[in-house]
Amino acid sequence: MHEIVTLQLGQRANYLATHFWNLQESYFTYNDQDESPVDHDVHFRPGVGADGSETFTPRTLIYDLKGAFGTLRKYNALYELTEDANPGQGLWDGKEVIQQQPPILQSDYQKSLDSGLPAPTLSTETVRYWSDYNRLFYHPRSIVQLNDYELNSRTMPFEDWSVGEDLFSDLDKEHDLLDRDVRPFAEECDQLRALQLFTGADDAWGGFAARYVDRLRDEYGKKAIWVWAIEDGAKAQRVCDQSRSANAMFRAVDQFPTASTAKKGH
């Protein structure tokens, strides 16, 4: 067997990877007469659920920011018995003030899956998060929420390449991400063939991925590492427009150097 471990880094990566896993799930067969066109052991791992039943979940790590997972829980129906839903008051004897964000409502697509009904057609109006059209259960170890940044934050946007590099360095120094996240999936493989990464390429996730690949190359130098880098066309257009505006301003200054100097002197 030649297994592949997947890493998904950020919103754009998870939107694409969710389609990938949904497609993999569609190849499953449930009787002896039908033969699957793919070997599911490459991308899926066997396991045991909270009730002792056998499970088959993706060999993947899903990284995203706080607030980006939608209705997807770390502990799903297969593993919910291990979730501590009521942690208790602890050692504090004073009055507690609990602040909770309003719950995210389940999408119509997910409601249809739970009810065993045909799923509705997806559109930009009905999809709020990539988890809105996810069709699989994941192992709790697959869900990695990065609480240092929040999705769509204006005060601390996760955009610049260097921000992603710094975040990876800080997290890796504190937790050793390969040891904590990657190694458990890699060591359960009979013969690890490759690691594949889905990642944004022109934002902070690009910097995060670049540092991650460096560490993977050091640790798994003999294994293939595939990177599916995704660019944001809208962002590229904004950068292009900003560059045009800046160039136009510089040309205007060059054409009227005297007026520009006089204005500064005034």
From TrEMBL:
Record-level GO BP terms: mitochondrion organization
Subcellular location: Mitochondrion
Pfam families reported in the protein's UniProt record: Misat_Tub_SegII, Tubulin_3
Domain DML1/Misato tubulin residue range list: 119-256
Cellular component terms per the entry's GO annotation: mitochondrion
Function summary: Involved in the partitioning of the mitochondrial organelle and mitochondrial DNA (mtDNA) inheritance.
Name the UniProt record assigns to this protein: Protein DML1
Origin species: Aspergillus terreus (strain NIH 2624 / FGSC A1156)
